[in-house]
Amino acid sequence: MTAASPAPPVRRAPPLARALAAAARAVAAVLGGRTPEAALARADAAARPAALDLAFTALRDHGRGDFLLDRLLARPLKDQEARALLLVALARLERRPEEAHTIVDQAVTAAGKTWKRLTNAVLRNFLRRRDELLAAADADEVARWRHPAWWLDALRLAYPAHWEEIAAAGNSHPPMCLRVNRCHRPAGADFLAELARAGIAARTLDDTALLLDKPVPVERIPGFREGRVSVQDWGAQHAAALLDARDGMRVLDACAAPGGKSAHLLERADIDLTALEVDAVRAARIGETLDRLGLAATVRVADAARPRDWWDGRPFERILADVPCSASGVARRHPDIKWLRRSADVAGFARAQAAILDALWPTLAPGGKMLYCTCSVFPAENGEQVGAFVARHADARRLPTGGAADELQLLPGPDHDGFYYALLRKEE
Length: 428
Known about the structure:
It is a single chain. The chain has three domains: 125 residues, Orthogonal Bundle (N-utilizing Substance Protein B Homolog, Chain A); 57 residues, Sun protein, domain 3 (Alpha-Beta Plaits); 193 residues, Rossmann fold, CATH 3.40.50.150. Helix 3 crosses helix 5. The strands form two sheets. Strands 5, 6, 7, 8, 9, 10, 11 and 12 form an eight-stranded mixed beta sheet that branches. The chain has a four-stranded antiparallel beta sheet with strand order 2-3-1-4, with helices on one face. The chain is α/β, with parallel strands linked by helices and 428 residues long.
């Protein structure tokens, strides 16, 4: 008679303290002018999902957290990581008051010996004065809307009737949308049923776009690893349809990483696609995306603004100019953007965009179409940019996009992020 095998150890969730500490390191990176990804990548694998959620919540709320800390601290706190831990804990306390005891206890543990007493005092002071402090925060524009003042001013100027909705959407969790690969089966309606069998609720947005009721890890999505489906925001999925690339055409995706739009173009038509990306690491992601989907394109590490380095002189019939931008339309996916960007950056992006458009235009065949695209909501990068381009190029004509007049500005909402599209035809 053999002894029974011992039961596998129960895998317990990591303590909240570990996730709070990892989140604080990520937020501290942003306070220091860096992006949070490197700090999150160093977090313990088991704690990383919770740390990501905590960090991104605190970053979405940063304007509010700063307001609260200014009223809770007797003097400025110079240690960025200690300040970041307080920001993370305050954001958690506001959302989960029923867990106040656990949050304070775990935040104090995460603070370590140096900042243990201060952390405890600040958080308990917040709990005592919670109603008073939150009422004051709601009366302050930056604290209420959780955006920098210059950003709110720009939204108010551009969208006087909708700026509050845009700001609120920028503080929300982003939707998760799928794109069914047309080169595979089942089609969209059938894949919806397949998702339902996997316990994933979704609804259709168009023939290949499916919006999940709530995000799930990609490992849970049936067919993802086999290339039958991709994750791509519905706003981004508009690009392939608007460009209208057809079988046999020579097409350029000028700023292609991470490859989602390139893949969508290849799924829709049998085209000769060249994908450019100036950053070699990001260019490698294009290849990974295409390999997973069973698609092929010519991927070049090159600057779209310098055609002499990559263009062979043969014109393209279609060009997708998905140019670098402020990313103000996708800030809820990358909440550090709100606090790392400065108002002067928008003008800098606009200058770079103009240079790319002017450089790409000679590579477009007469009668060809170029789709200008950003994930921004700022007019300087969108309508104003395209208007100035058309004024510089007498052979450029704007075409309908399905939006207002000859441009399509998608604002962030429950179904998609913020994107801008303008379609230009080169007169023959």
